[in-house]
Amino acid sequence: MVFVDSYPKTSKLVRSEFLVAFVALGIGALFGVVQALHRTGVFRGFVSSADYYTILTGHGVLLALVFTTFFIAGLFTWAVANSLERELPQRIAWSAFWIMLTGTVLAAVSIIGGLVGAPSILGHDLKADVLFTFYAPMKAHPAFYIGAALIIVGSWVAGLAYFKSLWEWRSENPDERIPLQTFMVLTTMLMWYVSTIGVAVEVVAFLIPWSLGLIQNVDPLLTRTLFWYFGHPVVYFWLMPAYLVWYTILPKLAGGRLFSDPLARVVFVAFLLLSTPVGFHHQYTDPGIPSGYKFIAMTNTMFLLLPSLLTAFTVVASVEHGARQRGAKGYLSWLRNLPWGKPAFAGCMLAGLMFAAGGFSGMINAGMNINYLIHNTIWVPGHFHLTVGTAFALTAMAISYWLVPQITGKKLRQRSIATLQPYVWFVGMAVMSNAMHRAGLAGIPRRTAEPTYDEFAFEGVAGTVGEMRIQIAIGGFLLFVGAAMFLIVMADTLLARRGGTLSVNSNIPEPLSGADHSPRILDNYKLWTAIALLLIVIAYGPPLASMVADGLFAPGSPPIPV
Ligand code: HAS
Ligand code: CU
C-alpha cells in the first residue's frame, strides 16, 4: 500500500511542511546567486552593497533555518508514522506547523521590509540585516526575534507529536525495541531540546526586550555564548536527518540492507551526548572565555568526529553490500554496480562524498590554533556549503524524489531533469567550495560585499584571486540552476494528476545486524540525557557563571583600549 493511502492525514501534513521548505529553498537560492555575483564583482546590478547584508541574511535564514526546519519536520513526520505504523496526533502536529509558519512569516517580512524600505512599526524600523547567526550587538526589528522564537517553539511542539506517538505505540508494544527510524528522530529531538534552551534564553530574555527598547544594553559575550551553545548542535539537527536517510533508506536504494542497527544507535546516542559541550569552538577568538574551556571544547569536538567516522564506515559498508547483492565483484569495481542513474541514490551518495571533504575542513576549523588562520574568512562558508549546503540540502532534494511520490501517490515527473540535477549540484558545489576554501587561505573575509576593501591585494596560496572569484561566481550560478531544476521537478510532480501504480514504497528492509543485537541500554533516553546535561555543566558552567557574575546586561570590565 502507498504511504498516502495508509496515512492520508499525516501525508497532508508532510506535503504542507515540504511545500514551505521548497518555497524557502527557491527564494533562498535566488538570494544566493545574487550575492555570489555581487561579492565576486561579476554582476552588481541587482542590489546595492548596503543591501547585500539584507540579501545575505535572507539567504541564510531561509535556507539554513526555514528550509531545513520545515524539511526536517516533514521527514520526521513521515519517519515516525512509517516506523510506528500510525497517523501522528493531528492537533499537536498541525499546531506545530502553524506556529512555525507564523514565525517564518514574521522573520521573512522583517528581512524583506529592510529591502523595500518599509515604514517603522512599533516605533522601530522594520528591518533585519543581522545575518543568520543574529547575535548582538547587531539589532533587528523585534518581529524578527519573535519570529525566530516561534520557529523554535513550533519545533518543540512538533517533537511532542513524535513523543506522543511513541507513548501510544509503547502501550501497545511494551517489550519491543523502538524502531530505528523513530529512535533516530527522538534522539535528534532530545538533542534539540537540550540545545535550543540556549538560543531561547538569548532571544526571550535578552534580544526581544532589547529590540523593544525595554532594556538598554546586552552583554555581547554572554549572548554570543548562549547563541553558540545552540549554534553548534543546530548543525547536527541538520546532519542527523541526513544520516537517518543514509542509514535507513540509502541501503535499500542500493539494493541492500543496513549493515548494523546497533552501530546506528550508538552514533545517534553519541550525538546526543557530545553535540552541545563544544560551542566554544566558534568562539576561539572571543576574549573573556578562558583558554582552558576552549581547549575542553576542542577536545570534545575531536571526540565528536567519531560518530561521523562510524557513519562513513557503516553507510559505505551497507551500500557495498547492496552492490554485491547486485552481483558486484572486486575491491572497488562494486562502485560501478550501483544505480547512479537514479536521482535519489545518486544525490545521497554525492552528498556523502562531499561531506567527507566538508568533515575534513571541519577538523581544521576545530583545531584551536589553525582556526585563527581561517576564522571569519570565506573558508568557513566553503566548509558549511559542503555540510549543510550539500550533506543536508542535496540529501533532502534527493530523497524528495523518492518520498514525494509516496506522500502524494503521484509518479515523479521530469525524470531526465531529476537524473541530472544531483550532478549539477555536485559540480557547482565542487567548483564553488573549493575556490572558497582557497580564497579563505588567502585571507579573503566572509560576510562582506566588498571583499577587497580599498583594493587590498590578496595573495593566493594555491591559484590566483581572480580565478577563485570567477569559480565562486560560476559555482554559485550552477547551484542556482540545480535548485531551479529540483523545484521544476517538484512543481510538475505536485501539480500532476494521480495515475498508475508507484514503483516505490516505504518498507525498510531489516538490517543485517538487527536491533536484537544492540544492548537495551542504548534506548535508555533518561540516562543519555542526564549524561549529556552533566557534560554541558562541566563544559559551560564556570565560564557562564563568570559572564553572569560580571553583570547580566553590561559587563563590568572596561572596554579594550584601541
Ligand atoms: Fe562545522 C563552522 C567544526 C560539521 C555547519 N559549521 C560551521 C558553520 C556552519 C557549520 C554552518 O570547530 C558556520 C557557522 C557560522 O556562520 O559562523 N563542523 C566542525 C566539525 C564537524 C563539523 C569538527 N558543520 C558540520 C556539519 C554542519 C556544519 C555537519 C552542517 C550540517 N564548523 C566547525 C568549526 C566551525 C564550524 C570549528 C567554526 C569555524 C569558525 O572559525 O568560524 C564534524 O562534525 C565533521 C565530521 C565529519 C566527518 C566526515 C565523515 C564522512 C562521512 C561520509 C560518508 C560517505 C558516504 C558516501 C555516505 C569526519 C560520514 C560515500 C560515497 C562513495 C562514492 C564511496
Ligand atoms: Cu560547530
Automatic annotation (TrEMBL):
Q: Which residues form the Cytochrome oxidase subunit I profile domain?
A: 18-503
Question: What cellular component terms from Gene Ontology apply here?
Answer: membrane
Gene3D superfamilies cross-referenced by the UniProt entry: Cytochrome c oxidase-like, subunit I domain
The main location is membrane
- Report TM segments: 18-38, 58-80, 92-122, 142-163, 183-208, 228-250, 262-282, 302-323, 344-364, 384-404, 416-436, 470-489, 527-549
Q: Which compartments is it annotated to reside in?
A: Membrane
Instruction: Please indicate if the UniProt record lists Chloroplast as a keyword.
Output: no
Q: Name one GO molecular function term.
A: cytochrome-c oxidase activity
A Pfam family matched in the record: COX1
Sorted UniProt keywords: Electron transport, Heme, Iron, Membrane, Metal-binding, Respiratory chain, Transmembrane, Transmembrane helix, Transport
In Gene Ontology terms, what is a biological process of this protein? aerobic respiration
How does the protein's chain sit in the membrane according to the entry?
Answer: Multi-pass membrane protein
By sequence similarity, the record places it as follows: Belongs to the heme-copper respiratory oxidase family.
- The name of this protein is B(O/a)3-type cytochrome-c oxidase subunit 1
Instruction: Please tell me the species this chain comes from.
Output: Haloarcula argentinensis
